[in-house]
Amino acid sequence: xxxxxxxxxxxxxxxxxxxxxxxxxxxxxxxxxxxxxxxxxxxxxxxxxxxxxxxxxxxxxxxxxxxxxxxxxxxxxxxxxxxxxxxxxxxxxxxxxxxxxxxxxxxxxxxxxxxxxxxxxxxxxxxxxxxxxxxxxxxxxxxxxxxxxxxxxxxxxxxxxxxxxxxxxxxxxxxxxxxxxxxxxxxxxxx
Length: 191
What we know:
Elements: H1 3-23, H2 30-37, H3 44-47, H4 51-74, H5 81-98, H6 100-106, H7 109-114, H8 119-137, H9 143-163, H10 165-170, H11 176-187
């Protein structure tokens, strides 16, 4: 692939990232991405033979951004494992709230299961980091299971917060107390 082809491929993904941010995952059609990129509606198929491949490339950008934020939040590793877990969980929830369309796209089962563009290879290291930190906080437990339960809890908070359900049910105007409660439930009281 020459530079101009690579440039158009990247432009299609860039447009998809912008579109998911402004209008949500449901707006990511090949035709709309092509229109916004200023190319024919058939042009994306040259670089992405299936719609799933284009969606996977867009989701991969989301995982890369989340991983970058997570790395920055956990710092140089000098904070305690509990502090690093708290920072990682907070970044996860902030990303879910601030980038709702991308977050929704990233966790679509069909994309992750398809294996297109190695999305599992992009998403699993972040879960591995979660498992490693949980193992350091809870050496008595199966870290993979506890990390999975914690992640499910965080994902639930993210979804319910995005829908407005948690604010309505709890009267909360910030997800931080819910985050603390989830961490305490899975890791023990952090006091």
